[in-house]
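Posting for a labmate who doesn't have an account.
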Amino acid sequence: LMARSGRALVSRYVRIFGMGESEVDTRLRDLENGENPTLSPYCSLGEVQLRATASADTAEKALALLIPLLAEVKARLGNVVYAIEETDGGSLAKTAIEMLRARGMTCATCESLTGGKVVAALVDIPGASAVVRAGLVTYQTDTKTILADVPAEVIERFGVVSVETACAMAEGTRKRLGVDIAVSTTGVAGPDGGTEDCPVGTVCVGVSTADGTSAVRLALSGNRERIRTLAMKHALHMLIEKAR
């Protein structure tokens, strides 16, 4: 392209999790109408990616056009922007591994409904062995106590799918395995198993560090695989937030 046009094209990829496409579009609509640089959205399950591209007679000048645009995008969207990369093909897992490695931190997972999807996504990234210590799959109720030291009374009082149990899973795993960060997932992926108080799609994701433990309760929609994949992505995003 440079040989034919005499101009350089430079792109950056902005990866977003935690904000829907329509809200992203509302906040950035005026920026998407520019001719140079341009801003184009692409969507995948639970995520939005923006490709910012600038053209100039040199790559340095094109990048200089991109810098203020990227800064404005970040300012308008905040922490839902989890990565800005030079090449396409990034992911929540890749960003989590890179952040944890850069900070010399280790992690572990304790999973129920995701059945190992979180740790599988992490270890699929080259260099994960420096970060990931273990992944526990505590699919049945009693294994949460056996493997992750979740007090049985917590499960009896609050239920398996609760922020309290998700917190206990994450904290127990972190302490038992001696890692810096642990994340947990528990929920109802369906198609059966839901109740009036805890319908299919109810998911709790926990995270624990030495500074404290917390969890979120989510109401996810879709089929079993969609719910499990979204739960996995939420857990990876919580890892990133704690590693920032």
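Reply:
Got it, the structure tokens are right above this. The chain has a mean pLDDT of 96.
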